[in-house]
Amino acid sequence: MASTIKVDEILDSQGNQFDGSQLGNVGKLLQVHNQVFSGKVYQTMNTTEQLVAGIQTSCVAKGSNSKFKISIRWIGEVDGPWEGIFNIKLNGIRVNSAGNNYWEGIAIATISHYFENGSTLEMMNVTTVASPNISAGTTVTVGLYYQDISSAGMWTNRCYAYAGQANYENGTCEIIIEEIGA
Questions:
Q1: What is the C-alpha separation between 114 and 81, in angstroms, rounded?
Q2: How far apart are CA 166 and CA 146, in angstroms?
């Protein structure tokens, strides 16, 4: 047997009728923005944090004080992936990182084959939620950053040995930003 609750009227603490519209955008998905990156890029990484292969995108906040769920997928290869770390920056500030040193971050590349750089790629997937305390209409820029303990080559969307040839894995990277109303 199902239970039923019937209410003629809901009042707020001041005695005014409450119909839910007062909640506005709280918890509502305001927008989804994504961008796929397919360029096959090589770059040298070091202890200075660097934007990875131009993997950055922007959108304009639709609400004030929204939360932003950020998901990033990276695929490629790194010389010694155990010596470097990824971070996400929102408007130039690290998001949910352990600190600002080169050894602190939010994700590492998974090692698929130790010292095998001819074909099998590494990958990194990360999702986090940021609360940047910004106003509606503000541009939100999200980027993927990397730092290494010394100096390392990074190949994005391709393996070390070949870019785009048959029998050698290649891929794409993606950023997804979901704005959730506050």
A1: 9
A2: 28
DSSP string, 135-160: -TT-EEEEEEEEEESS-EEEEESB-S
Distance CA 40, CA 77 (A): 11
* pLDDT at residue 157 in the model: 94
Backbone angles phi, psi at 82, to 5 degrees: -75, -5
Measure the N-to-C terminal CA separation of the chain; round to a whole number of Å.
37
Q: Which two tokens stand for residue 16?
A: 């005014």
Contact between 182 and 124 (Cβ < 8 Å): no
CA proximity to 146, closest of 98, 96, 81 = 81
C-alpha span between 144 and 54 (Å, rounded):
8
28-83 confidence digits (pLDDT tens): 999 999 999 999 999 999 999 999 999 999 999 999 999 999 999 999 998 888 88
Stated pTM of the model:
0.84
Distance (Å) of CA 137 to CA 13, 99, 147: 32, 29, 32
One-letter identity of residue 159: C
| DSSP label of 23 | G
CB 182 within 8 A of CB 37: no
